Amino acid sequence: MALVEPLDPNHDPDTKKLxxxxxxxxxxxxxxxxxxxxxxxxxxxxxxxxxxxxANEGRVTSAxxxxxxxxxxxxxxxxxxxxxxxxxAERYGAEQEQLDNIWEYRTHPAFSEAERAALDFSLxxxxxxxTVNADIKKRLHEHWNDGEIVEMLGVISLxxxxxxxxDSMGTSIEDGAVESADQYLGKYGWExxxxxxxxx
Length: 200
Hints:
Layout: H1 13-18, H2 21-25, H3 31-36, H4 40-54, H5 62-76, H6 79-91, H7 96-100, H8 113-126, H9 134-143, H10 146-169, H11 175-184
Helix pairs in contact: 4-10, 5-6, 5-8, 5-10, 6-11, 8-9, 8-10
InterPro entries: AhpD-like, CMD-like
Domain Carboxymuconolactone decarboxylase-like: 40-120
Organism: Croceivirga thetidis
């Protein structure tokens, strides 16, 4: 059981309307958002921030944003967010070779140098202590403009919030997310962990 159980999707009409966004990204409303409904101001603010961060205003694609989210979630160890990020990357058209080899993004030919710079930025920014340095800054600016870097850090920061929320909450993971995680991450040892609905 999660630390706090999710509320019914109909609990807060405003949240329900905003949460239609997740039908596109994931195919369902996440239990994390349903739990945030215990304080609807939080669920609504979170969804609006999510929509703003994931909006495409430059060359950072929807698929790359979700791979950035996956690297960030992998660095922090949140299995719930790892599964959600890889599912969303799949739904937003990440190349099959990238999905199959996300763990090897640094060396696999399916990833460009620009994508590697973005994913290394995600890894460095998600570590504690933070390891963003002059080399990462240089590599980012070789491939991306300031606005695009802001978009990337928006994703990393959003998932910093989500990683802490879902790992602390022990949010029960949805079947669709499990399906995607098993397909792409299972061979590397991904499992539900505390998110299986019975650990707390």
